[in-house]
Amino acid sequence: MSESLTNINNYLSYLELEKRYSKHTITSYKRDLQDFKEFIDEFYQLPVNQIELTHVRSYMVSLLEKELAKTSVSRKISSVKSFFKYLLKENIIDSSPVHLIETPKLEKRLPVFIKEDELTKLFEEIQYEEGFSGARDKLILTLFYQTGMRLSELINLKVSDVYEGEIKVLGKRNKERIIPLTKGTISLIHLYLEERGDKFSSNSYLIVTDKGNKLYEKFVYRKVNHYLSLVSSKQKKSPHILRHTFATHMLNNGADLNAIKELLGHENLAATQVYTHNTFQKLKSIHEQSHPRG
């Protein structure tokens, strides 16, 4: 795969400039393809146009032998498939060696979410710091739970994205969507902006660090993990958990699935339907407790 490094770099540029994938996604593709390249270089020393189905299968077997999670193996093979699809499109290869590869079957995992009473405790009983930092931290948690936005979307919010009663979010593929805000969330934004004052007026981003810089992923993860640890024993305590929680609680309280799809910024309904399983489990539990023959 001597010429493959250039091909990989070209492919990553294609994902960034034409497909408009996020930096996080591109980093994952880069890591997966570097792993594949190292395997081919070590065991076969083949140029990319000589790689065959057996070589890719050997790579998948090597991943399984390392006892990687099936989800990780599936993602890595998916990255390789996408790469060869690109090479075929660019006429760098005549046929793809991976079209017959089947990835390991995955068990369906239901989204993890926080219970409603735990969220009530988070927003009504937990004591936040006085001043700017406390208002900022509470706003981070509130926006995740009240809007279901992604981590990257929250980090990139601008002050100008906030309107009276709604907020503009820039989602995947630079697709914009408008999300309505509750009165409580609007009041919290006003309080935060008052605490922020003119101190960081030169920064156009809505939510900033204590030094007035743009938020970064580790900062937000650390904040969310800290506060969720105070109210929940769930092992996972990430921003994405609050996105799952938003969708699940909306469905549990009767929201239309298509409306939740639009609020989450999903491209198709199938991505949203996973939350109906949690709702079904709740209905099943209520039925068993309430029905005379339950």
Give the class-level CATH name of the largest domain. Mainly Alpha
The shape, in one word, is elongated
Low-confidence stretches: none
| CATH topology heading of the largest domain | hpI Integrase, Chain A
CATH superfamily of the largest domain: Intergrase catalytic core
Q: What keywords describe this structure?
A:
hpI Integrase, Chain A, DNA polymerase, domain 1, 2 domains, 3 strands, single chain, 294 residues, mainly alpha
Task: Characterize the structure shown.
- This protein is mainly α and 294 residues long.
- It folds into two domains: 4-89, DNA polymerase, domain 1 (Orthogonal Bundle), CATH 1.10.150; 116-289, Intergrase catalytic core (hpI Integrase, Chain A).
- 57% of the residues lie in helices and 4% in strands.
- It has helices at 4-17, 23-43, 53-65, 70-89, 116-124, 132-147, 151-155, 183-196, 217-229, 239-252, 257-264, 269-290; strands at 162-163, 166-170, 176-180.
- The chain has a three-stranded antiparallel sheet with strand order 1-2-3, with no helix packed on it.
- The termini are far apart.
- The model has no long low-confidence stretch (mean pLDDT 87).
